[in-house]
Structure formats: C-alpha cells, structure tokens
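We treat protein structure as text, and this decision shapes the records that our systems exchange. We quote a single record here, exactly as it is kept in our systems:
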Amino acid sequence: MKKDFAMEERKKIRLAKRGDQQAIALLLEKNYVFVKNYLVKITLDPSFAEDLTQETMIRAIERIQQFKGNAKFSTWLIQIATNVFLDEKRKQTRRNTWMKAYQQAERMRWNSRHAGHGLELLEGLAELPDEQRIALILKHYYGYTYNEIALFTGAQEGTVKSRVYHAIQALRKESHNEEGNQ
C-alpha cells in the first residue's frame, strides 16, 4: 500500500515537472494541511501561518523543476516553508528597524512643531483606534477636508467627522489626565 502511494506520488511529480497543472494541484492539495499545521506550530499564529502556506505553495509551483526526489515531496515542502518563514522574519526585522528609525525621525519633527507636547501627543495618538488616528492625522496634520478623507477611507463624511471629534476628545482627556498626574 505504502509502495503504491510512493509510486503514485512519483508519477504525479513527473507529470507536474512536465507542466501538468492537475498533478501539481493534487500534490499541493494533499500536503496543504500538513504544511499549514507545521507553520502554525512554528509561528504560533494561524493567520500568519495561512499566508506563509500560500507563499510556500506558490514557490513550490514556481520551483517544481528543482525537486530532485532525494526526499519525500512533503519534506521538500517543509524545507520551502521553513525558508519562507525565515525570509519573512528577516523582512519583518528590516521593516521594524526602518519603522523605528522613521518613528524616531517623526517624533523629532513632531516635537519641533509641538514643543512641550510632542511625546505625550504621540503616545496619545498611539492609543487611539486606527480609524480615529487616521482621520485625525489626515484632517489636522495634512489638512484634508472631511469629504476627501471619506473618499480615502471609504467611510461616510459624517463618520469621518465623528472619528475626528472622538479622537480629539480622547486626546484632551488623556492630556487632562497627564496634567493631573504631575
């Protein structure tokens, strides 16, 4: 039984290498859950693992010609999945480094414009829900109209006004709390 399975897998691999899309689809479908479960275990994040599994499958399709057959197909997919994971971690590290540098530069720029309130204001902005922070920054930092912000965000103009209002209220409340703690 196991021997029949191995022969069937080798046949599908040969067909896939010749461009048979159904063969590669069957190989990937058979191993999809196996690869995803592996990635969930190493990422501890099912959503991230799903994205990495998709990327693994794409790379397997692109590189099927490189499969030598020295190991099982599933082992080859695990190797690809591991490389995809490590590549993404390196990208995240680079993004985080760039983001920290960008945030530091923005803080310095912000502090020079809003002397005395810079860091507290940035911390308050960080606490706002994304929708409120985006609306507030687009309105008061970049000077866009409510109508323009509505177009950018896909929200109704009234919703944008509400988000800006609630963001300002939250920042004022935070500012009063800070003053009271000093």
About this structure: The helical segments are 2-17, 21-43, 46-62, 73-113, 118-127, 130-141, 146-153, 157-180. The chain has eight helices and no strands.
